[in-house]
Design brief:
The chain is an alpha/beta fold and 240 residues long. It has six helices and six strands, in the order E-H-E-H-H-E-E-H-E-H-E-H. Helix 1 crosses helix 6.
Amino acid sequence: MDTKFDDLSAVFLNTSLSADASSSHTMRLMRRAAGIMRDQAVSVDLIHMRDHFIGVGVVEDAGEQYGQRDEWPGIQERIFAADIFVLGTPIWLGVKSSVATLAIERMYAHSGEFNDRGQWAYYGKTAGCVVTGNEDGVKACARDVLYALQHIGYTIPPQADCGWIGEAGPGASYGDVPEGGGTPAGYDNDFTMRNTTFMSWNLMHTARMLKDSGGLPAYGNVPASWQDVPNAAQQSPDPD
């Protein structure tokens, strides 16, 4: 393939509840997607949120505002610098993790900032998500995460999620080694690997198109001048 991705960068943010990244099932599947991108020379930054102390709140800096210990501002800089953002979450009680919610809340606090075109700061970037668990909930978690990310400005490509839940649960989590040895759970699962591949390539393709075009056109979506653009809100609801 002639398309080059070596000038693109990606941040994978793991919001597992596991304190140790090496024991995180979500991190194992995220590394699969990260590996696909690295094979195409994308610069990949893997962040395990539990390695950091993150202050709570929809705030830019919990240290300044609430006096909390807070390492989020450094993570936010890495997210802003990336062309591709992937959030990984486990499933707990059918929904995304509390750490995933915390990450989205902190990202949301920066959604009012602007890029160099005067658009919201996440415009011109693309995002996806990775979900793992041993019971139902992959699609519900992906829906919640991808809605939030597009709402703050990310462009979401087709098939922008992948996941593993194994057999209707509870069952083996992604990467668990069967009793007596053998292939870890999910590693040879066509459905999970197919969707992981689709997500990774669609994110790279979308990031490539956005970067080559300078992001989304600014006409009609710049907060400072939205009233200058003819739109339905300025016209009669009944043109007839």
